[in-house]
Structures are given as C-alpha cells and as structure tokens.
Amino acid sequence: MKRWIPAVLFLLLAVMAAAQEKKILRGFDGGMMVHTGYLKGNLDAIDYTAKGVPMGIGGVIRLHLGDHFRIGSEGYMSTLKQRGNGSYLKYGWGGLLADFYTVLGRFQPYAGLTLGGGAMTTLLMMEEPASPWAPVEETRYHKQGFMAVDPFIGCDFIVSGPMHLTLKVDYLCALSRSKLLPHGPRVYFGFLFYH
User: Fold this and answer.
1) How buried is residue 48: exposed, middle or buried, by Cβ count under 10 Å (0-12/13-18/19+)?
2) What would the DSSP string read from start to end of 147-161?
3) What is the pLDDT of residues 51-78, one digit of tens each?
4) How far is 109 from 168, CA to CA, in rounded Å?
5) What's the pTM value of the predicted model, to 2 decimals?
6) CATH architecture group of domain 29-194
7) d(CA 51, CA 158)
C-alpha cells in the first residue's frame, strides 16, 4: 500500500469530523458512470502512435460541504482497443476530487479537478497470427504508473431529490516520469444518488 494513502484517509476523516461538528456537512452523493471519448499519444519506446475511442466505467462519491462545495473520490477503468487484433491500452486510475456546483431549476452545473494516479497496461501484437492458436512472435507488453491531473465540467439533471442523471466532460492528463501518455477528452454519462 502506498505510504500516502493512510495520510489521505486520515485527512478525509478529519475534514468529515470538522464538517459534522460545524454543521456544514450537507449530505453526500455517489454513483456510476460509463464513458467514451478520444485518446491519442506516442509510445516513443516502440515508435507507435496509439489513438482511438476508449470505453470504460467507474464511479464517484462526494461529501457536500456547505451549499456549493464538494470533496470526494472517483475511480475509473478505461480500455483503448488497438489494431483490431486484441491489442489494447488499459487505464486504471482514480484520485481525490473537489468541485463547485450551483442549482438552476432542475439543472445542477459543476466544475472541478481530480488529482491522483493510476497505471496503464499496454499489450500490442505487432503482427497477425497465421492461424487460431498460432504464436504471435512480435508482441509488446508494458505496465507503468502515472500521476493523473483531471479537470472536468458537467451538469446534473435532477430527476427527483435523491436521483440525478449526470453528463460530464473531462481531459485526463496522465503524466509519467518520461513522457505524457495517450490523453484526450472523455464524455461520461451516469446515475447519481443523493442523500
């Protein structure tokens, strides 16, 4: 387990306790979202440009502090298929978020930022197999961690008090020590439940 995770959890619990003591904790929300978008980037080590439409799923949970501020956490898994032969780039990432929101009738626009990290797993088969179950000799596999900086904007549609539909757009910047990994805009759609 990463050394900073216990410190972050302690900080989150301290904020929750302080918010409850001062009566600024106004509830929480959470839910699941599916996403797609467009990613592009160069994998310099093997001279390959990855690009395409990712598909993924994940979720979010947030605490409401006051009337317009939320803090919480989100995490997602996203797969970018390549070459039409089973090759892929797979992102697993998450982090801590903060956002501001307002309510305009049945709409609730918001904007915020997530900071965190994750890992990208790459499997590229550089040639086609000659037949089913035949070995593929030129295959590349790599896994690397990254830091995630993810600004986002979105809007909920309030179906009822406890249930919202949400539409969100972000731009995941996945930063590694050596280079910027494939990145680009993503669009999310999902259900959120408020309490």
Assistant:
1) middle
2) EEEEEEEEEEEESSS
3) 999 999 999 999 998 889 999 999 999 9
4) 10
5) 0.82
6) Beta Barrel (2.40)
7) 35
